[in-house]
Amino acid sequence: MADIDRETEQMEQDDQAEAKPFFARFLEDQKRVRTGVKAGRGITTLKHPSDSDESQTMKYPSDGDEEIYAK
Q1: How far is residue 32's CA from residue 60's CA, in Å, rounded to a whole number?
Q2: SS (H, E, C) the chain
Q3: In this predicted model, what pLDDT tens digit does every residue of 37-57 receive, in sequence order?
Q4: For the chain, N or C: smaller number of CB within 10 Å?
Q5: Report field, pTM of the whole predicted structure over 0.70
Q6: How far apart are CA 56 and CA 63, in angstroms?
Q7: CA 44 to each of CA 12, 16, 47: distance values in angstroms, whole numbers, following the listed order
Q8: Is the distance from CB of 51 to CB of 42 less than 8 angstroms?
Q9: Distance CA 19, CA 25 (A)
Q10: How does pLDDT run across 6-33, given as a tens digit for each residue?
Q11: Contact (Cβ atoms closer than 8 angstroms) between residue 41 and residue 47
């Protein structure tokens, strides 16, 4: 009789060890759908007004006022 009790306890422990949380089973059971959608896009900064205007800044009064002229 003691052996029968041990077998049922062992079976219950095995069932608990194999049990997965609901969301783990849910996510694993979902079918993977292939689409042509790709995440992300090319790298673009949000610098104002654009990335190609480096020759002139918006510094006041001008860009050339810090040049040192040797006499």
Answers
A1: 57
A2: CHHHHHHHHHHHHHHHHHCCCHHHHHHHHCCCCCCCCCCCCCCCCCCCCCCCCCCCCCCCCCCCCCCCCCC
A3: 777 777 766 666 665 656 666
A4: C
A5: no
A6: 7
A7: 57, 51, 9
A8: no
A9: 9
A10: 677 767 666 665 788 898 888 888 887 7
A11: no
**Measuring CA to CA, how many Å separate 53 from each of 42, 46, 47?**
20, 13, 10
User: Residue 69: CA atoms inside 13 Å, Cβ hemisphere, count?
Assistant: 3
Q: In this structure, what token pair is assigned to residue 37?
A: 């959608």
- 49 closest CA partner among 62, 36, 58: 58
R_g over Cα of the chain:
34
Which amino acid appears at position 16 of this protein?
Answer: Q
